[in-house]
């Protein structure tokens, strides 16, 4: 008997109410069929609602929220409790996309026991359906989490939590030796049981050749078009930040400019007494007003 086809969670043009929650088997089926997988980051209820309405497949509560939302200079300082808060808020805004949470720096490297305990918190307290960790060196941590029953997404190439060790926020795998290291990292994470892997900031040709060895879905960010899907940071793709961003970022809107313009217009209206206008106020019955004034004067 042939296996039943995996239902499509996001039919093109289908309203959110008609979509089914995205599952791990469906992501594997998308890879098999060559259907591109879409992932975006989100860090709170409003951004999750946007991702839901847009019909993406996966939402990542990335530790990039340390910079985009919490104002840290890098991803390193963010704590487990801070990430749990962002994850839980995002969970409340989602129904369909699979929710993946980054394990923050320092919360899984020490031991497999630490890694499992942290992952369990993100599932129980944050509502995540899977967790993500960085680097092929963490393959044993990934294996332990998978054996504990929690799906894991890997991450190779540019791994922001260890960017200093990698020479900064720069492309990786641009020499034969370093490209081979990235390949070994990816294969180690695949062997450890990860359900998917992120390739970040590696040459497109390297990613292309690696895809022949990858049996699980690969989500690219600055890794070319050969991967099974793509991810961008919410604030990057919508322009809710200053500056252009990394080379691989394509902006689909300039929301920050609109936000500044809107707040500036509000400030101008307040300072010139154009706001609030009568349309923005509440009325009171004249008799009730007279009674109020009488009471106030007594």
Short description:
The chain has 298 residues and is of the alpha/beta class. Helices cover 39% and strands 12% of the residues.
Structural notes for this entry:
This protein has 298 residues and is α/β, with parallel strands linked by helices. It has two domains: 16-253, Alpha-Beta Barrel (TIM Barrel); 259-297, no CATH class. It is built from eleven helices and eight strands. The chain has helices at 24-33, 45-54, 65-68, 80-91, 112-124, 139-147, 176-191, 204-211, 234-237, 255-271, 286-297; strands at 37-41, 58-61, 98-102, 130-132, 152-157, 196-200, 218-221, 229-232. It has an eight-stranded parallel beta barrel, surrounded by six helices. Strand 3 (98-102), helix 5 (112-124) and strand 4 (130-132) form a beta-alpha-beta unit. Helix 5 (112-124) packs across helix 6 and helix 6 packs parallel to helix 7. The relative contact order is 0.10. Mean pLDDT is 91; it is low at 1-13.
Head-to-tail CA distance between termini: 88 Å
Radius of gyration: 23 Å
Named CATH topology of the largest domain: TIM Barrel
Number of extended strands: 8
How are the strands of the biggest sheet laid out side by side?
1-2-3-4-5-6-7-8
Name of the CATH homologous superfamily of the largest domain: Phosphoenolpyruvate-binding domains
What value does the average pLDDT take? Answer: 91
> What series of H and E elements makes up the topology?
HEHEHHEHEHEHEHEEHHH
Main pleated-sheet profile? 8 strands, parallel, barrel
Percent helix:
25-40%
Multimer state: single chain
Q: What general outline do the C-alpha atoms trace?
A: elongated
Content-based structural category: alpha/beta
> How many domains is the backbone divided into?
2
Q: For the record, what CATH class of the largest domain applies?
A: Alpha Beta
What CATH architecture of the largest domain do you see?
A: Alpha-Beta Barrel
């Amino acid at each position: 008997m042939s296996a039943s086809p995996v239902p499509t969670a996001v039919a093109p043009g289908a309203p959110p109410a008609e979509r089914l929650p995205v599952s791990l088997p469906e992501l594997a089926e998308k890879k098999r069929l060559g259907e591109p997988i879409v992932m975006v980051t989100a860090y709170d209820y409003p951004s999750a609602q946007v991702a839901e309405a847009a019909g993406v497949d996966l939402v990542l509560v990335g530790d990039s929220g340390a910079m985009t939302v919490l104002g840290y200079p890098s991803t390193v300082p963010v704590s487990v409790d801070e990430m749990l808060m962002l994850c839980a808020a995002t969970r409340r805004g989602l129904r369909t996309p699979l929710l993946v949470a980054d394990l923050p720096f320092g919360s899984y490297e020490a031991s497999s026991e630490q890694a499992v305990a942290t992952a369990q918190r993100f599932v129980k307290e944050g509502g995540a359906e899977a967790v993500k960790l960085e680097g092929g060196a963490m393959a044993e941590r990934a294996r332990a989490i998978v054996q504990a029953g929690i799906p894991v997404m890997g991450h190779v190439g540019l791994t922001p939590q260890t960017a200093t060790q990698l020479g900064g926020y720069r492309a990786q795998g641009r020499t034969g030796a370093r490209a081979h290291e990235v390949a070994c990292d990816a294969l180690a994470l695949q062997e450890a049981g990860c359900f998917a892997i992120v390739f970040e900031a590696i040459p497109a040709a390297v990613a292309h050749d690696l895809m022949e060895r990858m049996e699980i879905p690969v989500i690219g960010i600055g890794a070319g078009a050969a991967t099974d899907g793509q991810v961008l940071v919410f604030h990057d793709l919508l322009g809710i930040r200053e500056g252009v961003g990394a080379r691989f970022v394509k902006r689909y809107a300039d929301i920050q400019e609109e936000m500044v313009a809107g707040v500036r217009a509000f400030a101008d209206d307040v300072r010139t007494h154009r706001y609030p206008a009568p349309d923005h106020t509440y009325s009171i019955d004249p008799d009730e007003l007279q009674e109020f004034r009488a009471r106030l004067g007594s």
